[in-house]
């Protein structure tokens, strides 16, 4: 599958093309993701680094083609404004963090950080395969827990869509405009502070839209 090159990010410094190609679409093609491709992206997630090698990430996966009941449960957990477009994606996934270390049962303060690293790695592998994900905070943790029996010690972090990008023309006007709007990022001076924290006169919060 060819890489998705829609709305590629342009930055002040060159980065790997697959990083610039990663985006968060709301339009998805009506095309299932083959099982072997799904295995590839989750294998990529497993390659991410984690504190003490704990690998605290867990993923609940629902596919329209193979696990429709799980798919519908995840869809129902989404906020109402996310459901109309997310239901076009062939795969829905809940990322979950194991909140305590296995070797000593102490709280793992870095669990969600490490889950984020795993999902970011998954997203880049997906982009290399022509797939894209869209991560969402707009979902109900309580619904996920109740629907799937997620036990104590595990914390749902986010939900993401996964699939092959589709034609934005099928989206409502407001979402289509957001899909096609130029992608921007803050300049490095706003978030890279070499040598120490910037003093007020050195802050540059006016350089990029929030």
UniProtKB/TrEMBL annotation:
One of its GO terms (molecular function) is oxidoreductase activity. InterPro entries: Nitroreductase, Nitroreductase-like. CDD domains: TdsD-like. It holds the Pfam family Nitroreductase. Gene3D superfamilies: NADH Oxidase. Keywords: Oxidoreductase. Residues 19-164 form the Nitroreductase domain. PANTHER family: NAD(P)H NITROREDUCTASE YDGI-RELATED (PTHR43673), NADH DEHYDROGENASE_NAD(P)H NITROREDUCTASE XCC3605-RELATED (PTHR43673:SF10). Belongs to the nitroreductase family. This is Nitroreductase. The lineage of its organism: Bacteria, Pseudomonadati, Bacteroidota, Cytophagia, Cytophagales.
């Amino acid at each position: 599958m060819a890489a998705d090159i829609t709305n590629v990010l342009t930055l002040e410094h060159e980065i790997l093309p697959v990083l610039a190609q990663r985006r968060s679409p709301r339009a998805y093609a009506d095309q299932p993701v083959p099982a072997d491709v799904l295995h590839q992206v989750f294998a990529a997630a497993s390659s991410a680094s984690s504190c003490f090698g704990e690998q605290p990430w867990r993923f609940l996966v629902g596919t329209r083609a193979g696990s429709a009941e799980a798919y519908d449960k995840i869809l129902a957990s989404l906020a109402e404004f996310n459901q109309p477009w997310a239901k076009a994606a062939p795969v829905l996934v809940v990322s979950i963090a194991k909140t305590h270390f296995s070797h000593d049962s102490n709280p793992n303060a870095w669990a969600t950080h490490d889950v984020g690293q795993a999902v970011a790695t998954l997203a880049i592998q997906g982009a290399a395969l022509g797939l894209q994900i869209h991560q969402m905070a707009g979902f109900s943790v309580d619904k996920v827990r109740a629907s799937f029996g997620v036990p104590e010690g595990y914390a749902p972090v986010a939900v993401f869509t996964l699939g092959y990008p589709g034609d934005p023309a099928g989206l409502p006007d407001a979402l289509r405009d957001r899909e096609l709007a130029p992608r921007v990022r803050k300049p490095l001076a706003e978030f890279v502070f070499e040598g120490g924290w910037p003093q007020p006169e050195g802050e540059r919060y006016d350089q990029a839209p929030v």
